[in-house]
Design goal:
It comes from Dreissena polymorpha (Zebra mussel). This is Retrotransposon gag domain-containing protein. Pfam families: Retrotrans_gag. By secondary structure, the chain is mostly helical. The protein is built from nine helices and no strands. The chain starts with a helix and ends with a helix.
Length: about 230
């Protein structure tokens, strides 16, 4: 075998060899962390694609490196659940991984938003509870109804702005569903508002009566004074 033939053989057999003289060696891609299904897939695949673009890797090379970097749950999905043909096509493999792990990423995002969500200032309890339901159902689509209600009631009460309403409903009403909790809180706030309004009106009425009493007495005194003087 001539020198040219041996050189051609080495270029074909070496996984990290490049046909272009100024091209970076694909082994540099080994610095990319593995993906085990727990990291954010969007970040991992974007980083992988960016480095692969800079190294000018073709789809076959990208496929080889991607397969080597699948671990844990991601490896289980790829090597046991996907059709064999998908493992031989980079675009198909990336699409399958995206469809499976992008959903997990989305549920994690909604779970984080649900955990941080509290009632906003001047937000009604109905609107607050409605968004909590949406976030919870997006974060836990498979959760059973009883667990769902328990989680929603607990988080709804914990996130209330009004501490008195929270204490009153949590310890005196003990709601079992979030709708029941919303009703009890709204009722309590309405009743307390009416009581506060009555307390506000009572001193005003008494003050008005006190101001009017001297006027009547003064008028009576004037009439009595008039009779005495005429007599």
């Amino acid at each position: 075998m001539g020198d040219h033939g041996r050189q051609h053989f080495y270029n074909r057999s070496d996984d990290f060899a490049c046909s272009e003289p100024n091209r970076q060696r694909p082994r540099d891609l080994m610095k990319v962390p593995a993906f085990d299904g727990k990291e954010v897939w969007r970040v991992c695949v974007t980083r992988f694609e960016t480095i692969a673009d800079r190294l000018k890797l073709d789809e076959d090379q990208r496929l080889d490196h991607l397969l080597q970097r699948l671990e844990g749950q991601a490896a289980t999905v790829a090597f046991t659940l996907l059709p064999p043909g998908v493992l031989h096509n980079y675009r198909d493999l990336k699409a399958e991984l995206s469809s499976r792990f992008q959903l997990v990423e989305t549920t994690k995002i909604f779970e984080a938003r649900f955990t941080r969500r509290n009632q906003r200032h001047d937000e009604s309890v109905e609107a607050y509870a409605s968004e909590l339901k949406m976030l919870y159902d997006r974060a836990h689509p498979q959760r059973d109804r009883r667990t769902r209600e328990e989680d929603l009631v607990r988080h709804f009460l914990d996130g209330l702005q009004d501490e008195e309403a929270r204490f009153e409903v949590e310890f005196h009403k003990e709601p079992t569903t979030v709708d029941e909790a919303v009703f009890n809180v709204a009722t309590y706030l309405q009743m307390r508002g009416k009581q506060d309004e009555r307390r506000y009106r009572r001193p005003t009425r008494r003050a008005t009566e006190k101001l009017s009493e001297p006027q009547f007495e003064s008028s009576g005194s004037r009439r009595q004074w008039s009779r005495d003087t005429c007599g």
